[in-house]
Amino acid sequence: MTGAAIRRKAAQLQSVFEAAGATPVETSVLLPAETLLDLYGEDIRARAYVTSDALRGEQMLRPDFTVPVVLAHLATGERRGCYTYAGEVFRRQDISLQRPNEYMQVGFELFDDARPEKADALVFSTICKALSGADLRMAIGDIGILAAAVRGLDTTDRRKQALMRHIWRPARFRALIERFSGRAPTPPSRAALIAAENPVAESGTLVGLRSQAEIDLRIAALREDAATAALSVRDVDALDALLAVSRRADLAVEDLNAIADDLPAIGNAVGRLTARLDALQTAGVDVSALDFEGSYGRTLMEYYDGFVFGFYDPARPDLPPVASGGRYDALTRQLGQGRNTPAVGGVIRPDLLCARDMSTRRGRS
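Given the sequence above, the corresponding C-alpha cells read:
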C-alpha cells in the first residue's frame, strides 16, 4: 500500500462528497492549542502533538478537522453549509497497538438547522455511498439518549453534572455510578476529610493555586454530596439496561421504549431515534443491517452529543473504524458563543480501505 494509492482513494471518496453538494475546504495543519484545550480539556495533550511558538504560543498538530471546519463555517455567517476535506491528522498512539501516528482522513460535514434527523440520514447515506462495495459492519448509537437519562436521574444537579462530564469516559462514569448508588465505599481519605471539624487546621502554610475560599467550597461540596441520598436501584438498573442494549437498530427501539417506562426522561430522545431510522430508511439505508449499541460513541471524540456511527471491517475487529462520525451541536454552540448551528459529519480513512482492498485481492489470488 503506497501513499499514492491512498491519495487516489481519497480523491475518489472526496468526489462522492462533492457530487452530494459539498464544497472542498482546506485547513491549517497547526492549530491554536488553547482552543482545543478549552474544548477537550487537558486530556487532549495525551493524544495530540503540541509545540510552542514564540509569537503564536502553543500550537497543536491537527488531531482532526472538525474544529477548524466549524470555525471556517461560522466565519461565513451562513446558516447552512456543506463541506468536504482531505488531509493528514496526527495523534499519539499506544505503542502496543502498532497504529500509525499520522494518517489521512476524508470528511463530509453538514451544517443545517432544518430537521436534524433528515440531516443525519443525508450524511450517513452519503458515507454509505462512498463506501459502497466495501462490505463493512455498520454500528450506530445516540449519546443524546444517555445524556437525557442522566438529566432525568432523581439526584442533585451537582451529581448530574459530574456524570455528564464523564459520559465519554466509561470507566470513570461507572465509578461515579457505583459511588453515587452507595455500592462503592467512600475512600478513607475523603471520609476523614468530610468528618473532620476543620480539615485544614493542621495543614500549615497553603501552597498551590487554590485559595482558602476555594478549598472551603470544595469541602462543603464533598459534605453535601455525602449527605445526598443514594441513586435508586430503579434508576441504576435502568441506566445499566440502557448501556447494555445491543441489537439490530429497528428492534432496539422496542428495548429502549421498555426502558423508558422506568426512565421517562429518555422518551423524547427515543422518539428522535425512531424518526432518524425512518429518515435513514427513506434515504435508502437498510436499517435492519444497522447494529444499535446503547454505549456506542463513548470513546470517540468528546464533542459528539447525539447520533453517532461507525463502519468496521468484520474480519479485523482489532482495527479502528474505517469510517466514523456523528452530531455535534454543542460544539458549534460553544465555538459560536451561543449561536445555534446544528451540525453532523463523518470521516473515512482511505488507508484502511486500501489495506482492505489489498487483503481482498490476496484472498482471491
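The first strand starts at residue 23 and ends at 24. Try to locate this feature in the C-alpha cell string yourself.
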